């Protein structure tokens, strides 16, 4: 097994730590995106909007597909105070974020970050494996209402579920789902 394969396998393992569960709802902490042009954007500058924040790997096919879906969603919800944001955080993401955005034709801000700030934002232990993409839904008041890891059933039907979560938040409804459930390792 190559070192790269081992790292990728660990990063996309199929289990979550027993007993882990981020508190939802909770106030979204500040998160800073490093943009490809060297500038920075803060999550707080989008307060007052319904936000879908996607944490992805540039090399992940599921993340690439999800980001293209999110670009469609951004276009569909134009003028409705919905903002899609993305942060790539795999090793080497800083060097690949510009090509990621260009190749996939993304119409929403996608920056990069180190893994630690991402996992801190998610309230996820840095030593535990996880699946990407990870989607976080934030209401107009800056409250995280749901978060879904890449192995969650929510992402089995992303076309329907993402729009459903956004619609709930736009109507002022609070979701109560979206924390990674307890799981056991799968073979």
Features of this protein?
six-stranded mixed beta sheet; single chain; alpha/beta; 187 residues; disordered N terminus; Glutaredoxin; two-stranded antiparallel ribbon; disordered C terminus; globular; 8 strands
Question: What does this protein look like?
Answer:
- It is a single chain.
- The chain has helices at residues 3-11, 61-76, 93-104, 115-122, 158-170, and strands at 26-27, 32-34, 40-42, 50-56, 82-88, 110-112, 134-138, 143-148.
- It has one domain: Glutaredoxin (3-Layer(aba) Sandwich).
- With 187 residues, the chain is an alpha/beta fold.
- Strand 2 and strand 3 (40-42) form a beta hairpin.
- The strands form two sheets. It has a six-stranded mixed beta sheet with strand order 1-8-7-4-5-6. Strands 2-3 form a two-stranded antiparallel ribbon.
- Helices cover 31% and strands 19% of the residues.
Assign a percent range to the helix content.
Answer: 25-40%
**Terminal residue distance:** 16 Å
Shape-level CATH architecture: 3-Layer(aba) Sandwich
Query: Order of helices and strands, N to C?
Result: HEEEEHEHEHEEH
Query: What's the count of strands?
Result: 8
Low-confidence stretches: 1-20, 179-187
Assembly of the depicted chains: single chain
Domains, number: 1
Structural class: alpha/beta
**Largest sheet geometry:** 6 strands, mixed
Topology (elements, then pairings):
Layout: H1 3-11, E1 26-27, E2 32-34, E3 40-42, E4 50-56, H2 61-76, E5 82-88, H3 93-104, E6 110-112, H4 115-122, E7 134-138, E8 143-148, H5 158-170
Parallel strand pairs: 4-5, 5-6
Antiparallel strand pairs: 1-8, 2-3, 4-7, 7-8
Helix pairs in contact: 2-5
């Amino acid at each position: 097994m190559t070192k790269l394969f081992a790292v990728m396998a660990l990063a996309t393992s199929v289990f979550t730590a027993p007993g882990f569960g981020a508190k939802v709802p909770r106030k979204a902490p500040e998160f800073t995106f490093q943009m490809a042009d060297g500038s920075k954007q803060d999550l707080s500058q989008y307060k007052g909007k319904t936000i879908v924040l996607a944490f992805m790997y540039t090399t992940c096919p599921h993340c690439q597909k999800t980001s293209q879906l999110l670009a469609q969603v951004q276009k569909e919800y134009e003028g409705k105070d919905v903002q899609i944001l993305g942060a790539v955080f795999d090793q080497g993401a800083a060097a690949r974020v510009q090509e990621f955005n260009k190749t996939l034709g993304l119409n929403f801000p996608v920056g990069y970050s180190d893994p630690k700030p991402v996992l801190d934002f998610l309230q996820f232990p840095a030593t535990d494996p996880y699946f990407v993409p990870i989607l976080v839904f934030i209401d107009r008041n800056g409250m995280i209402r749901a978060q879904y890891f890449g192995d969650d059933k929510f992402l089995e039907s992303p076309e329907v579920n993402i729009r459903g979560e956004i619609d709930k938040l736009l109507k002022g409804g609070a979701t109560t789902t979206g924390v990674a459930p307890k799981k056991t390792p799968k073979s």
